[in-house]
């Protein structure tokens, strides 16, 4: 059996850093129709088994005041967004058993009751 140099070729969609920084790729921002000022959150749904979903908690036009999980542009004209939220990153890093940071992939856009449109986080237990 040959040994592959790159065993998994699909890149991560969301990067969680230990300092609280969360980087969202253009794929994630397009799937959730995210814009600067929108607020994201992670929900844990336990039905047959436990799943975690990334969803939009508040849209920028509906947001008054400061909120944890607010999206900001990572570049001036790019579709990448960045979030600073230590509570979200601590939760994800604890659940993924990786304190040095982790990259997660997302699944297909799903409608979740109580959340609306959400993305399942792959690799989070």
How would you characterize this protein structure?
- This protein has 125 residues and is mainly beta.
- 13% of the residues lie in helices and 37% in strands.
- The protein is built from two helices and nine strands.
- Strands 1, 2, 3, 4, 5, 6, 7, 8 and 9 form a nine-stranded antiparallel beta sheet that branches.
- Strand 5 (71-73) and strand 6 (81-84) form a beta hairpin.
- It is globular and about 55 Å long.
- The model has no long low-confidence stretch (mean pLDDT 89).
Largest beta-sheet details: 9 strands, antiparallel
Mean pLDDT: 89
The coarse silhouette is: globular
Helix content: 10-25%
Radius of gyration: 15 Å
Order of helices and strands: EEHEEEEHEEE
Gap between N and C termini? 30 Å
Beta content: 35-45%
Counting helices, strands and paired strands, the structural category is mainly beta
Count of runs of 4 or more consecutive helical residues: 2
Number of DSSP strand runs: 9
Give start-end ranges of low-pLDDT stretches: none
Give a summary of the structure in a few sentences.
This protein is 13% helix and 37% strand. The chain contains two helices and nine strands, in the order E-E-H-E-E-E-E-H-E-E-E. Strands 1, 2, 3, 4, 5, 6, 7, 8 and 9 form a nine-stranded antiparallel beta sheet that branches.
């Amino acid at each position: 059996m040959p040994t592959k140099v790159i065993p998994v070729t699909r890149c991560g969609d969301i990067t969680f850093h230990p300092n609280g920084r969360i980087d969202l790729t253009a794929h994630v921002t397009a799937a959730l129709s995210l814009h600067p000022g929108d607020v994201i959150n992670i929900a844990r749904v336990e039905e047959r088994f436990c799943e975690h979903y990334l969803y939009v908690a508040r849209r920028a036009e509906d947001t008054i005041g400061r909120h944890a999980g607010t999206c900001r542009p990572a570049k001036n004209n790019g579709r990448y967004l960045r979030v600073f939220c230590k509570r979200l990153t601590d939760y994800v890093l604890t659940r993924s058993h990786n304190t040095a940071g982790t990259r997660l992939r997302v699944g297909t856009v799903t409608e979740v009751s109580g959340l609306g449109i959400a993305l399942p986080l792959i690799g989070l237990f």
